[in-house]
Amino acid sequence: MAVQVRGEILDVRRSGAYHVLSLTAPGISEVTRPGHFVNLAIGGEESSMLLRRSFAVHQVQSRGVYGGTLDIVVSVKGNGTRWLADRRRHDAIDIVGPLGRPFVLPKERVNAVLVGGGYGSAPLFMLAEQLRERGCRVDVVVGAGTEEKLFGTLELKRLASTLTVTTDDGSLGERGLVTDVLPDVMDRVNADVVYACGPMPMLASVARIAEERKAYSQCAVEEAMACGIGVCMTCVLPVVGQDGITRMLRSCTEGPVFRGDRVRWSEIGTIPPDTLGAPVQGGH
């Protein structure tokens, strides 16, 4: 269902350590679901920056003065993200989306805990809204290194039954990691499902904590996705299928959302020997 459109920058605003970009995206925003991402061309037509960049969709509006629009959250880390953050109103932008497999929403009312690390909390806003529309209880846990690197805590407080905040340095909320407080939050609300987005080590811990409590978990992985459409194979990771067989799956097409108990977190970056199609040790 993905399409490529020529969009336009509507707004660029600061939010703590991040930049939030609002883009016109007709034909994309109308069909975007929580967990989808978009892929943007970087640097303009004459740029030497050939690789596109992928960003989780933060919010969408399917209609309005400009038609369909969407917001993404950018953390400036290099030339490409700096170029994006420097865009101005009415600048053109090439967008492909919606991409990937989104979060699966429950068919009945459940107690859901949403966990975000840094700007990984961006896709959780749409998710929280849609879970609440289904009558689910939504509790949110977000964390970051410092207060400045948290994203959207005031809005999340409005969307959630409870919001628990952690920072590594104690500058806001509780000192520590989201995974330090997650077990207590899950126990307190009798959580049925956990949705998480953030750094890989955080997701690995969230998946383990959920499994220990016999809760279902869905994790949106943060992998480098150069093409976003499954061609370049830079974003593969080992995932166990329903048949018990491990396969190297692409975060951009089979993900970015995976069942937390299916990902072999400790072996990401490797091809486990028992993976389907893995090279045979000492073979010819």
Features:
2 domains; alpha/beta; single chain; 33% strand; globular; Elongation Factor Tu (Ef-tu), domain 3; 284 residues; 15 strands; 17% helix; Rossmann fold
**The named CATH superfamily of the largest domain:** Nucleotide-binding domain of ferredoxin-NADP reductase (FNR) module
Overall pLDDT level: 92
Number of domains: 2
Number of strands: 15
Summarize the main sheet: 7 strands, mixed
Rg is 19 Å
Characterization of the model:
The protein is of the alpha/beta class. The protein has 2 domains: 3-99, Translation factors (Elongation Factor Tu (Ef-tu), domain 3, Beta Barrel), CATH 2.40.30.10; 111-227, Nucleotide-binding domain of ferredoxin-NADP reductase (FNR) module (Rossmann fold). The chain is built from 5 helices and 15 strands. The chain has helices spanning 79-85, 124-133, 153-159, 178-189, 200-212, and strands spanning 3-15, 18-24, 37-40, 53-61, 69-74, 92-99, 111-117, 137-144, 162-167, 174-175, 193-197, 216-220, 236-240, 246-250, 257-259. The strands form 3 sheets. It has a 7-stranded mixed sheet. A 6-stranded antiparallel beta barrel has the order 1-2-5-4-3-6. Strands 13-14 form a two-stranded antiparallel sheet. A hairpin with a 7-residue loop joins strand 4 and strand 5 (69-74). The radius of gyration is 19 Å and the shape is globular.
